[in-house]
Amino acid sequence: MEFSIRAAVLEDCKDIARMTKELSEYEKVTDQVTITQKDLEQDGFSKNPFFHGIIAEVPEQHRTKEGHVKIGYALYFYSYSSWKGRAIYMEDLYVMPEFRGKGIGKALMSKVAQLGMAAGCTQLNFTVLDWNKSSMDFYLSQGCFDVTGDMGYHCMRCDGEALERLAQP
Ligand SMILES: CC(C)(COP(=O)(O)OP(=O)(O)OC[C@H]1O[C@@H](n2cnc3c(N)ncnc32)[C@H](O)[C@@H]1OP(=O)(O)O)[C@@H](O)C(=O)NCCC(=O)NCCS
């Protein structure tokens, strides 16, 4: 199927918000999602963006029955490893169900890898839920490895009241 991948622009935030919601439904974490279209607009498209995005788009003739032509996306940002230097972090990778298995997810991830390499990054990092076997298999098929399993790293987080307490001077 014909599709194109391009950098996300401000006007894509409505569709990115829609697809982040779809992804959260797929990942069964909808109750945890507080992000809004406005947050995305502010955080991704102001002077010092916190993230960047790319969009997968299909021609009009392949639009969904709801009329969507923006059918996949990836969000990413740059990070740093004190061992290896520049790194790129892929926050989300998503393709709408009816467009999966057509090479679109691979093309999105490949674009994130290209952007990272062009910026001098030597690592592409991301997380995947332990039950999401199909996506884990997809990542393994792309040559990725499981940092938790192979190196013992766990993702850690501090948020809510604990973060507020921690941030007390
Ligand atoms: C994961 C996801 C992005 C993959 O996108 P996709 O468009 O379906 O995948 P593609 O068609 O690009 O697959 C590319 C390659 O991966 C392989 N692949 C895809 N799914 C696979 C699977 N479940 N097991 C093994 N290989 C798989 C394909 O065989 C293909 O290999 P090839 O290039 O050698 O032919 C998509 O399925 C998705 O959005 N899933 C739901 C959301 C999600 O889980 N996102 C990741 C959150 S961490």
Fold blueprint:
Elements: E1 4-7, H1 13-26, H2 37-45, E2 52-57, E3 70-81, E4 85-95, H3 104-118, E5 123-125, H4 133-141, H5 147-151, H6 160-166
Parallel strand pairs: 4-5
Antiparallel strand pairs: 1-2, 2-3, 3-4
Helix pairs in contact: 1-2
The structure holds coenzyme A.
Gap between N and C termini: 55 Å
- Kindly identify the CATH topology: Aminopeptidase
CATH architecture: 3-Layer(aba) Sandwich
Average pLDDT works out at 97
User: Which percent range describes the beta-strand content?
Assistant: 15-25%
Secondary structure class reads alpha+beta
Any ligands, ions or cofactors bound here, and which?
Answer: coenzyme A
Figure out the total of helices.
Answer: 6
Number of strands: 5
Secondary-structure element series: EHHEEEHEHHH
Poorly predicted regions: none
Give a summary of the structure in a few sentences.
The protein is an alpha+beta fold. The protein has helices spanning 13-26, 37-45, 104-118, 133-141, 147-151, 160-166; strands at residues 4-7, 52-57, 70-81, 85-95, 123-125. Strands 1-2-3-4-5 form a 5-stranded mixed β-sheet, sandwiched between helices.
Provide tags for this entry.
169 residues; alpha+beta; 6 helices
Characterization of the model:
This protein is α+β, with helices and mostly antiparallel strands. Helices cover 35% and strands 21% of the residues. The radius of gyration is 17 Å and the shape is globular. It starts with a strand and ends with a helix. The model has no long low-confidence stretch (mean pLDDT 97). The structure holds coenzyme A.
